[in-house]
Design goal:
Strand order of the largest sheet: 3-2-1-4
Radius of gyration: 15 Å
Helix content: 40-55%
CATH superfamily of the domain at 9-74 and 108-134: Glycogen Phosphorylase B
Order of helices and strands: HEHEHEHHEH
Largest sheet: 4 strands, parallel
Strand content: 5-15%
């Protein structure tokens, strides 16, 4: 059961584009907000959670900064990509770029479910230009 402080705490959810240049600034923003008492959650893929967020969240916990990580399985194979192809940094052709965007779009329903369960006050994502459904979800 949540206490009154937890239910009134500002909660910001982050959904960064799966690329190094996007993950690191999102992590920095989440740490800054969490250090000021804002509940922060980063939604990401298994590879990104392991590569970008596991060490940072552990060191943040050591400083009493709580950043939650929610992992969405990235539908690589369903989109025609090789297993483990979870980063924009791996794209080498227009074809793989289109498949990657298809895979991101397949995250709509799982992200909506996390959003509805977590009920954050705000969603910060850097993919609005790619995914119009993110704008609808954030409203």
């Amino acid at each position: 059961m949540m206490n009154m402080t937890e239910t009134n705490q500002l909660h910001i959810m982050f959904f960064p584009l799966m690329a190094k240049g996007h993950m690191l600034p999102i992590m920095d923003m989440a740490k800054l907000l969490a250090a000021r008492g804002v509940k922060t959650t980063i939604v990401t893929t298994p590879l990104s959670a392991l590569v970008f967020f596991s060490k940072t969240t552990q060191s943040s916990k050591n400083r009493s900064i709580n950043i939650a990580i929610k992992v969405l399985n990235f539908p690589t194979e369903e989109a025609g990509l090789p297993r483990g192809f979870e980063s924009l940094d791996l794209i080498t052709s227009h074809e793989t770029q289109m498949k990657f965007i298809t895979a991101i779009n397949m995250l709509q329903q799982p992200l909506k479910q996390i959003f509805e369960e977590s009920r954050p006050n705000a969603l910060i994502a850097d993919m609005f230009f790619l995914l119009s459904w993110l704008q609808i979800l954030a409203m």
